[in-house]
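Dear H.,

Thanks for agreeing to be a second pair of eyes. The structure we're designing against is below in token form, covering all 377 positions.
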């Protein structure tokens, strides 16, 4: 079920990002046949925001992603906070001062609060999250953060008897590459491969990033027109994606992408796609690259024992833990260990949501290949 859902979303995504390249031109040609970047022209149905992403982690393993943008009204954005049990809290920023001054305030959908100084890698982020005081610091890594160029398009059906609303959101996610590392360039190209970007300098130049052909070609008018008249696309009403960083070190970066699709009915479908990259060679790591034996009975038992101890769950919460597989697992890393994950419907019903199990560093080490036993150092 998860594979079918992801395939459908990726098919739409590639069609949108690579199929509309003739709609709007990014470059103009001068008399000297040199390309110049023209300003990004957006219609009233489009928006584009530029977010600075900061990853900070506490000594106990909790971490945040601060994603702040700026417009004529000041700073805005979100702060994603992942606790030690891998529960995610999303805080919408309600107040933010400038860098190096002022405080930041944010509130979650369930009215939890976050307050602290402005998040930065230059100094500790001292915050109070839902009344709990915490301190987050920058990781020791060649990656100072990331940029998100977010594009949204929304419209309504022109038919008076059709109340549907069309919404689309996507984003370019680029790791900062102050050191001009070829490995980071390689990672950025892979993260954004659906945008058909081939010039790595795009990711190191904010002006290019803001006016990239791949972003402009995501104008939703053609696909919106198809949505209105096509039986297939008429079912697609909301598609969006967002990015975050789960782990940064001198050796690896672990990135997540949340994809959501609503087509009507009781609820939408969603999936988190995790990607772990080596900063030493730029390669994307698979679970079989790290683990000695994915069929190890001891490792599987360790994971199953943790699955049934998740708060509010027991063995009956799942479809069948005796048949659980670790092959092709959509894993990610944190500063405190390796997290195995399963999507909706993969090992349990929709109601339990996505499932995450953190195997702490010392517990997972015996199962890691020798070359990865120091991956968390």
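And this is the sequence the design step returned. I haven't edited it by hand at all.
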């Amino acid at each position: 079920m998860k594979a079918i859902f992801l395939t459908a979303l990726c098919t739409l995504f590639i069609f949108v990002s690579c199929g509309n390249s003739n709609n709007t031109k990014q470059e103009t040609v001068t008399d000297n046949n040199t390309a110049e970047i023209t300003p990004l022209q957006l219609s009233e149905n489009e928006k584009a925001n530029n977010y600075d992403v900061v990853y900070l982690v506490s000594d106990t393993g909790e971490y945040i992603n601060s994603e702040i943008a700026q417009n004529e009204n000041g700073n805005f954005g979100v702060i994603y906070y992942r606790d030690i049990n891998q529960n995610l809290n999303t805080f919408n920023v309600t107040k933010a001062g400038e860098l190096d001054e002022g405080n930041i305030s944010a509130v979650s959908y369930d009215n939890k609060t976050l307050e602290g100084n402005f998040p930065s890698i230059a100094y500790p982020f001292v915050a109070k999250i839902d009344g709990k005081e915490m301190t987050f610091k920058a990781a020791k890594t060649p990656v100072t953060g990331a940029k998100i160029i977010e594009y949204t398009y929304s419209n309504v059906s022109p038919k008076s008897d059709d109340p549907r609303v069309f919404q689309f959101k996507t984003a370019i996610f680029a790791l900062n590459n102050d050191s001009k590392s070829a490995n980071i360039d390689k990672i950025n190209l892979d993260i954004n491969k659906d945008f058909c970007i081939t010039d790595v300098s795009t990711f190191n130049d904010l002006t290019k990033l803001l006016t990239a052909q791949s972003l402009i070609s995501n104008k939703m008018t053609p696909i919106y027109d198809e949505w209105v008249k096509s039986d297939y696309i008429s079912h697609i009403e909301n598609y969006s994606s967002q990015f975050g960083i789960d782990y940064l070190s001198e050796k690896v970066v672990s990135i997540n992408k949340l994809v959501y699709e609503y087509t009507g009915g009781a609820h939408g479908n969603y999936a988190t796609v995790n990607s772990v990259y080596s900063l030493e060679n730029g390669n994307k790591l698979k679970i079989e690259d790290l683990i000695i034996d994915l069929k190890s009975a001891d490792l599987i038992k360790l994971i199953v024992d943790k699955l049934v101890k998740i708060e509010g769950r027991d063995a009956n919460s799942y479809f069948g833990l005796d048949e659980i597989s670790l092959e092709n697992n959509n894993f990610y890393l944190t500063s405190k260990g390796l997290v195995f994950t399963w999507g909706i419907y993969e090992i349990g019903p929709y109601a339990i949501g996505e499932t995450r199990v953190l195997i702490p560093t010392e517990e997972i080490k015996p199962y890691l290949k020798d070359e990865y036993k120091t991956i968390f150092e």
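Two observations from my side: The first strand starts at residue 27 and ends at 29. Confidence is low (pLDDT under 50) at residues 1-17, 19-38.

Warmly,
E.
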